[in-house]
Amino acid sequence: MTPPAFHRDSRLADRALRRYLPRPGSVPPTVRRAMLYSLFPGGKRLRPVLAIAACRALGGRLADVLPAAAAIEMIHTYSLIHDDLPALDDDDLRRGRATSHRVFGEAMAILAGDALLTHAFEVAATHPRGAASAPRRLRAITLLARAAGVTGMIGGQVMDLEAEGRPYGAARLRRIHRGKTGALISASVQIGGVLAGAMPRRIAALRRYGDRIGLAFQIVDDILDREGTTRSLGKAAGKDAAARKATFPGLLGVQASRRLAESAIDQAIRAIAPLGRRGAELEAIARFVVTRVR
Predict the structure, then answer these.
(1) Domain of 219: which CATH number?
(2) Residue 22, exposed/middle/buried by CB under 10 A (0-12, 13-18, 19+)?
(3) DSSP E strand stretches across the chain
(4) Contact yes or no for 54/189 (Cβ under 8 A)
(5) Domain that holds residue 277
(6) In a structure prediction context, what are the per-residue pLDDT tens digits for the chain, which is 294 residues long?
(7) What's the DSSP call for residue 165?
(8) Who's near 51: CB < 8 A, 6+ residues apart?
(9) Number of domains, the chain
(10) Is the whole-model pTM more than 0.90?
(11) Strand, helix or coil for residue 244
């Protein structure tokens, strides 16, 4: 069951996205329509919700984290648009409807993804405003760039493609998904702490939490691809096996994969135990990650 606070923060993320997207008339209308189409209606909004919850847990202000939360979701959505392209995963369905390139064509989908990625960094570079916030902005941008770039998401996607149809072990599988999925999830949590002005030891705890959440999220994703339906997932089910992708159930089996995900969540919760009651929302998100059905 989705935690009530998750719904509240997801709505905050949606409002922030609408606020920080380019205004009508300021950019070519077709690319803006393609950006909006892929962003709304959104998915779980896990990454911006994690940033918001972490900032709140560390005593930060919503006004400081919401622009970054929007930027994080723009980057996540750009990655989905590009993942769905024929040259990569070649998907026709995303979030319960036709993928961007099926609606707008491949060229416009590529440009919409590019636009979301670059605009995300403009938003992150200019918020929160003021010279006093500059060190926090710089740290947040650094985390975001590393997570989205070749040392994070892009690197993971490359390894994922190269692993298709080839033998793989646990170490390689973890490396793939630490980059492809885990990097942006972990960065989201850390960015929330950074923008709250948290001390390094708190950021380190958030990093440990985020790393374990990222692992559990990917394991559950792999299981859902195997056991879920296209209707329930809002995207094509069974794609991993068809593409002979490297997955946790493929390596360990479903039951062992579930145990690994549950263990990762236990570790995530222990990482934020020093936060006490302030970490309750982060704990609820962690438990949701491993029990979700889509």
Answers:
(1) 1.10.600.10
(2) middle
(3) 93-94, 97-98
(4) yes
(5) 4-291
(6) 788 899 999 999 999 999 999 999 999 999 999 999 999 988 899 999 999 999 999 999 999 999 999 999 999 999 999 999 999 999 999 988 999 999 999 999 999 999 999 999 999 999 999 999 999 999 999 999 999 999 999 999 999 999 999 999 999 999 999 999 999 999 999 999 999 999 999 999 999 999 999 999 999 999 999 998 888 788 888 888 888 999 999 999 999 999 999 999 999 999 999 999 999 999 999 999 999 988
(7) T
(8) 65, 68, 69, 72, 188, 189, 191, 192, 195
(9) 1
(10) yes
(11) coil
The answer to whether the CB of 65 falls within 8 A of the CB of 197 is: no
Lookup: tokens for 64: 């400081």
Distance of CA 245 to the CA centre of its chain: 20
187 CB neighbour count, 10 Å cutoff: 30
**Token match 């990762």: residue?**
264
Q: How far apart are CA 61 and CA 55, in angstroms?
A: 7
Place of tokens 């999220």: 217
